[in-house]
Design goal:
- This protein has a domain at 2-21 and 43-156 and 171-199.
- It is built from 8 helices and no strands.
- The longest helix is centred in the middle third of the chain and has 65 residues, at 92-156.
- It is an all-alpha fold and 254 residues long.
- α4 (60-74) packs antiparallel against α6 (92-156).
- Helices cover 77% and strands 0% of the residues.
């Protein structure tokens, strides 16, 4: 049995898979109508798929990406600047303070919207994990069904003849068509699983960028910038701290 499976060029099979494949092969009965070989799919699998499809349709990753882009546009307006003596005499400190407060309000709004989108993206990740788990299970099952079906055809497919059969019911041909469709479904599942892995990795990276920016780097920069404004920016250490925090925030968000 294992040697026969190797001729199918479908990869290696474990002893447990060989045993399952043999049971599937022995269960094939083309006289049974309708024949359910390879057609089983749970309602839960369909629900998982529909839930994930609904979340993907919201384009949450694009929404969060757009918010990050808009956040980057607003950051220069809140970039801390240290006015020189003349600028301070002309009231530049007040101008900087007002500009900072206006930019801060816009940035706070963007961060709040980003938190909402990020929460929905986390739900999407959860649904993706469910779908990935289900797909891997279905791929494993379909692979065994396709292997068993191919072995069945190898053993039972009648030799080709020039005489056309008058039989209207051709179980072997129906089963061969079924097997072709199952093979296409297997390839589709494998491609979808690969795409989900890619989207999952991209989504995790996007969330990591947003959360580190919004919950770590932004508060650091915000507090240093506020201290700089409150104290008139009269120390080089404070200025360097603000500039470092600002540059780190821009770099991580980009």
């Amino acid at each position: 049995m294992k040697n026969e499976l190797q001729t199918l060029q479908m990869g290696d099979f474990t002893d447990a898979e060989v045993a399952k494949c043999e049971r599937l092969l022995n269960s094939i009965n083309l006289e049974q109508l309708p024949h359910q070989f390879g057609l089983s799919r749970s309602k839960q699998a369909q629900q998982n798929f529909e839930g994930l499809t609904g979340l993907l349709a919201e384009s949450l990753d694009n929404r969060l990406g757009s918010l990050i882009t808009e956040l980057l546009k607003q950051l220069p307006n809140a970039s801390p600047e240290n006015p020189n003596w003349l600028q301070r005499q002309l009231g530049q400190t007040l101008v900087n303070s007002l500009r900072y407060e206006n930019a801060k309000k816009r940035i706070d709004r963007l961060l709040q919207e980003g938190e909402v989108a990020a929460t929905r993206l986390e739900q999407q990740l959860s649904e993706m994990v469910k779908q990935q788990t289900q797909l891997k299970l279905e791929v494993a099952q379909l692979r065994l069904h396709v292997a068993a079906g191919r072995l069945y055809l190898q053993r039972h497919l009648p030799p080709a003849t020039d005489t056309e059969s008058l039989d209207f019911d051709k179980p072997i041909e129906r089963f061969a068509r079924r097997l072709t469709n199952l093979t296409a479904l297997l390839a589709s599942h494998e491609m979808t699983a690969t795409q989900l892995d890619l989207v999952y990795a991209q989504t995790v990276n996007l969330l990591e960028r947003f959360y580190e920016s919004s919950r770590v780097l932004f508060p650091i920069w915000q507090e240093h910038a506020l201290a700089l404004l409150l104290n008139g920016g009269n120390t080089a250490v404070k200025i360097r701290l603000v500039q470092y925090a600002f540059n780190a925030l821009v770099k991580k968000s980009s």
